[in-house]
């Protein structure tokens, strides 16, 4: 599988596992897990075909670690970013003093006024470093990196979770905790 095919398959997997499993009539359990054999079979029926070996390569090499297998590789799920209601079974954790959020210039006025909202996703996504936040922000135009005073938020009782691929998650970031 070449890089272009891997990217196309990865986007397809994100779409199906995070947002629209019904596209291929895929069953996800309450924690977002799908049966690997079912995913491969139903993806082939939708002309997105890939082998287990190709799927394994995508899971292992995806730069954002978007997907994870269970221990025996019979089930797969997206690590976070879902717009469908699933329970990732994450435990609250104390975040670092500061985390970062990358966004596009076009969003900054609204964010500074209203804060960072999860919108259609289950959580707001925060990065541990400015480099990752910059990559996220670049997806939508000129990136702006916001520093979030997460230590202060945590002290005030706001919960944070750390996904399996090291993305920090929370429900909402009030504008009063943001700085450019």
TrEMBL record:
NCBIfam families: PRK00819.1-4. Its EC number is 2.7.1.-. It is an enzyme of class 2 (transferase). Removes the 2'-phosphate from RNA via an intermediate in which the phosphate is ADP-ribosylated by NAD followed by a presumed transesterification to release the RNA and generate ADP-ribose 1''-2''-cyclic phosphate (APPR>P). May function as an ADP-ribosylase. Pfam families: PTS_2-RNA (PF01885). It comes from the Bacteria. InterPro entries: Ptrans_KptA/Tpt1, RNA_2'-PTrans_C, RNA_2'-PTrans_KptA, RNA_2'-PTrans_N. One of its GO terms (molecular function) is tRNA 2'-phosphotransferase activity. Belongs to the KptA/TPT1 family. It comes from Chryseobacterium limigenitum. GO terms for biological process: tRNA splicing, via endonucleolytic cleavage and ligation. Keywords: NAD, Transferase. The gene is kptA. This is Probable RNA 2'-phosphotransferase.
């Amino acid at each position: 599988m070449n890089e272009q095919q891997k990217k196309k398959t990865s986007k397809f997997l994100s779409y199906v596992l995070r947002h629209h499993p019904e596209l291929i009539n895929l069953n996800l359990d309450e924690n977002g897990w799908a049966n690997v054999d079912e995913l491969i079979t139903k993806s082939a029926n939708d002309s997105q075909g890939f082998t287990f070996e190709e799927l394994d390569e995508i899971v292992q090499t995806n730069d954002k670690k978007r997907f994870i297998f269970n221990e025996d590789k019979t089930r797969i799920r997206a690590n976070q970013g879902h717009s469908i209601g699933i329970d990732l079974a994450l435990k609250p954790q104390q975040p670092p003093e500061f985390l970062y959020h990358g966004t596009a210039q076009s969003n900054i006025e609204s964010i500074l006024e209203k804060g960072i909202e999860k919108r259609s996703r289950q959580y707001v996504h925060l990065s541990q470093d400015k480099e990752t936040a910059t990559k996220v922000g670049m997806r939508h135009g000129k990136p702006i990196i916001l520093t979030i005073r997460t230590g202060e938020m945590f002290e005030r009782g706001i919960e944070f979770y750390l996904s399996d691929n090291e993305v920090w998650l929370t429900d909402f970031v009030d504008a009063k905790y943001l700085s450019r």
